[in-house]
């Protein structure tokens, strides 16, 4: 009787796993998986893991449930790595089922817990994510990074910084590039106040001798550029060994945002010379630069270049070119762009166009679109457009039409007040999200530290400044304690 060769069996066995892992598409991976089942080739944890990993991006709950049933039948449901991979698939496709599966998993590793923290973060339930984080029997750097990312992604800046400070102060975990990148990402979106923490973290990166990777370097360039420290953005940019399109885009958008249009255009041309292909956001930045400076010829050239690169014109591209033509007085060109847009013009584009008509006193062109604009905008959210239209009617000596426009707005102004209250509530919740210049804060920093330490806020100008900036005493204590903790742990 012929005995099967075990080595031949193992070789074939591993070949199937390798084929599923290297499948060019989820469909091909599923076909291979089903072929193994039909041909009675024994399935192991690797073939199941590779199949789940390939199918997770499809976000198909029915497919994941079908694979789940098959995994139960095969007896792999309690395999910790298979269960964690299945949990990740449910987190992406159906989070309610992921919660049920997590409760049923008898053995959980750190990756299992981290996956659920990320899932709760994506669903917006940061409190539940933090409860899970505190309940973890063991944590690693990835656990802290996941929790910090959960806070940052849900606009809880102070909690994210506090979590990072706790991680550093514990002395058991040293932040890695993922952790640092997450913190810097939050700093870049906080504005000037986040810059205080961001510079400390940048110093930590430099002091530990880390190479400026593309990811960290791009975030630093973005942070400095957004806050107006363009000199530092260029220093980081020049120190990077490698740059991608996002790095160039961050620099171009930063210069455009702060009015340095010529420099933004120069960087765009330099990027093309290096062979880096611009993306849609890059064109938004360079078109914005052209609109600010009134560079009509260059703006028209870059707008036409979008389709040459195989990209699709988005609403923000149309908005930039309409703004450019409008400010330059080419209102017929701007109107032609609006009429030939592949997407429906929004209130921003209409506002830009009508403002240009008002500035250049081209009331005849404005009359062509006012009725269409009135049908598009909503009084409860677009009150500024109604005010603009009313001004156009008054300047064109159409008093009756101006009164009609004002009446349409007054009838629903209560909704606008409600929206304002909601905005005030959002500002109240986000204690760190304030906008002022870094230099202005630096001028007050010494007196603020003295006041925090000794509780002396009797100085009237200081009180007025804090009130104007919506900065609370708790916010200052949290900020200074964070930066001092980083400093005391040799991070700066």
Notes on the structure:
This protein has 492 residues and is mainly alpha-helical. It has a domain of 108 residues. 75% of the residues lie in helices and 0% in strands. The N terminus and C terminus are likely disordered. It comes from Hibiscus sabdariffa. Keywords: Repeat.
Task: Draw up the topology in text.
Elements: H1 6-21, H2 26-38, H3 45-55, H4 61-74, H5 80-93, H6 95-104, H7 110-123, H8 126-135, H9 141-153, H10 157-170, H11 177-190, H12 192-207, H13 214-226, H14 230-239, H15 245-257, H16 261-273, H17 280-293, H18 296-308, H19 315-328, H20 331-339, H21 347-359, H22 363-376, H23 383-395, H24 399-410, H25 413-429, H26 438-454, H27 460-468, H28 473-488
Helix pairs in contact: 1-2, 1-3, 2-3, 3-5, 5-6, 5-7, 6-7, 7-8, 7-9, 8-9, 9-10, 9-11, 10-11, 10-28, 11-12, 11-13, 12-13, 12-28, 13-14, 13-15, 14-15, 15-16, 15-17, 16-17, 17-18, 17-19, 18-19, 19-20, 19-21, 20-21, 21-22, 21-23, 22-23, 23-24
């Amino acid at each position: 009787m012929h005995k099967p060769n075990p080595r031949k069996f193992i070789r074939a066995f591993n070949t199937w796993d390798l084929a599923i892992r290297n499948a060019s598409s989820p469909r091909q991976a599923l076909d291979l998986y089903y072929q193994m089942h039909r041909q009675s080739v024994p399935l192991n944890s690797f073939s199941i893991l590779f199949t789940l990993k390939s199918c997770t991006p499809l976000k198909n709950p029915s497919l994941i449930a079908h694979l789940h049933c098959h995994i139960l039948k095969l007896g792999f449901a309690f395999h910790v790595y298979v269960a964690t991979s299945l949990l990740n698939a449910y987190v992406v496709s159906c989070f309610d089922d992921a919660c049920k599966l997590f409760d049923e998993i008898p053995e959980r590793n750190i990756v299992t817990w981290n996956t659920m923290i990320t899932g709760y973060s994506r669903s917006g339930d940061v409190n539940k994510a933090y409860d899970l984080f505190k309940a973890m029997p063991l944590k690693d750097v990835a656990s802290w990074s996941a929790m910090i990312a959960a806070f940052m992604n849900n606009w809880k800046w102070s909690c994210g910084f506090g979590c990072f400070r706790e991680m550093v102060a514990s002395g058991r975990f040293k932040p890695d590039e993922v952790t640092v990148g997450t913190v810097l990402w939050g700093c870049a979106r906080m504005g000037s106040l986040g810059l205080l923490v961001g510079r400390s973290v940048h110093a930590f990166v430099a002091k530990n001798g880390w190479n400026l990777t593309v990811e960290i370097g791009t975030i630093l360039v973005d942070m400095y550029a957004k806050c107006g420290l363009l000199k530092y953005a260029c220093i980081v940019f020049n120190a990077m060994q490698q740059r991608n399109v996002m790095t160039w885009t961050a620099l171009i958008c930063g210069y455009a945002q702060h009015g340095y249009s010529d420099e933004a255009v120069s960087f765009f041309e330099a990027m093309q010379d290096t062979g880096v292909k611009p993306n849609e956001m890059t064109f938004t930045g360079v078109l914005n630069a052209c609109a600010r400076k009134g560079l009509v010829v260059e703006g028209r050239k870059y707008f036409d270049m979008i389709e040459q690169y195989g990209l699709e014109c988005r609403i923000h591209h149309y908005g930039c070119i309409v703004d450019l033509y409008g400010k330059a007085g080419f209102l017929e060109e701007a109107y032609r762009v609006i009429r030939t847009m592949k997407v429906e013009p929004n209130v921003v584009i209409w506002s830009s166009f009508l403002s240009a008509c008002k500035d250049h006193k081209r009331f005849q062109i404005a009359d062509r679109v006012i009725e269409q604009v009135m049908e598009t905008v909503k009084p409860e959210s677009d009150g500024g457009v109604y005010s603009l239209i009313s001004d156009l009617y008054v300047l064109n000596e159409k008093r009756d039409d101006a009164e009609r426009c004002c009446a349409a707005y007054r009838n629903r102004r209560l909704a606008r007040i409600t929206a304002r209250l909601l905005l005030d509530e959002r500002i109240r919740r986000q204690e760190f999200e304030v906008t002022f210049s870094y230099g202005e804060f630096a001028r007050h920093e010494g007196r603020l530290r003295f006041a925090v330490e000794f509780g002396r806020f009797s100085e009237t100008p200081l009180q007025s400044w804090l009130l104007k900036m919506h900065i609370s005493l708790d916010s200052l204590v949290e900020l200074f304690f964070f930066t001092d903790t980083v400093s005391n742990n040799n991070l700066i």
